[in-house]
Amino acid sequence: MTILDKIVANKKREVAAAKKRTSYIALEESEYFHRDTYSFKEFLLDPARTGIIAEFKRKSPSKGIINDKVRVSAVTTDYAAAGASALSVLTDRKFFMGRKADLVKARSVNNIPVLRKDFMIDEYQVIEAKSLGADIILLIAAILSPAEIDTLAKLAKSLGLNVLLEVHNLEELERSINPNLDAIGVNNRNLADFTVSVETSYQLAKHIPAEFMKISESAISDPETIRQLKLAGFNGFLIGETFMKQADPGQAMRDFVAQL
Ligand SMILES: O=P(O)(O)OC[C@@H](O)[C@@H](O)c1c[nH]c2ccccc12
Question: GO:BP terms for this protein (predicted)?
Fold first, then answer.
């Protein structure tokens, strides 16, 4: 069983439990469920911002604890002030030490798009994402069939959410492409064995149709990489660990952005 299989198996149990605890009706009673969302594309293309999607991540299966000493409100507002185009907040508890409450907190103190970073496998999680205050959901091609991607993306669009599809290779990209997506993210990390290479982004860039925003995800640790990725056509850059591994992630992002 790969780590991804374990994460998905656990997620199925979590979603079943969440459905019992909180009904669809209760989710739709959240004030966030009835709000207008921010446009991911607009913030990515805003020349006053950096294109960076700055992630709040305490722990990961590949690195263990990255930083469990910082607060989501301080870090995410610092990220936004440093020029983030969007925020990414992990809500998986078991493998990433995230909490749904982290997303609610990030939403309540920021006015830029927020991505719910989790393993979406069920329509319930899409409704839940909106009710927690997310603007963007992530769909991971490695764990979803094309039919599932279609269903989840259509539901997300009907709620005004933006959809980011994550792929790691050409086969995933070609089978998963769907008109209901807003952005395609190339994950430079192989979720099956955790190896990383930014080359993955350069290789797949030319295969991503022009109508989708292009995002490069993971293992970005240097401003020069962002300059190169921009030349290759990328609009967004998802960065977690490079900032989170520092005692002050917001300061780490300011220092990074100063070198862009
Ligand atoms: O910490 P990094 O290497 O900068 O990576 C951030 C982000 O891309 C990574 O956390 C991620 C990409 N896809 C995911 C899917 C689930 C959980 C996490 C991820």
Answer: L-tryptophan biosynthetic process
Cα gap 144→181, rounded to integer Å: 14
Give me the pLDDT at residue 1, please.
86
Report the chain's terminal Cα–Cα distance, integer Å: 41
Whether the complex's predicted ipTM surpasses the cut of 0.90: yes
Q: Distance from the CA of 60 to the center of ligand 1, in angstroms?
A: 8
> What is the position in ligand 1's atom list of the atom closest to the CA of 221?
4
* pTM of the shown model: 0.98
Instruction: Give yes or no for residue 142 CB within 6 A of ligand 1.
Output: no
Residue 181 has phi, psi (to 5 degrees) of: -95, 150
- Residue 86: half-sphere exposure toward Cβ, Cα within 13 Å: 30
214 flagged as catalytic = no
Closest CA to 255 of 43, 50, 68: 50
- Give me the chain's average pLDDT, please: 98
The answer to whether 218 touches 189, Cβ cutoff 8 Å, is yes
Catalytic site residue from 67, 105, 162, 166: 166
CATH class given for the domain over 3-258: alpha beta
Q: Could you tell me the residue ranges of all domains in the chain? A: 3-258
What pLDDT does residue 191 have? 85
Active site residue 187: yes
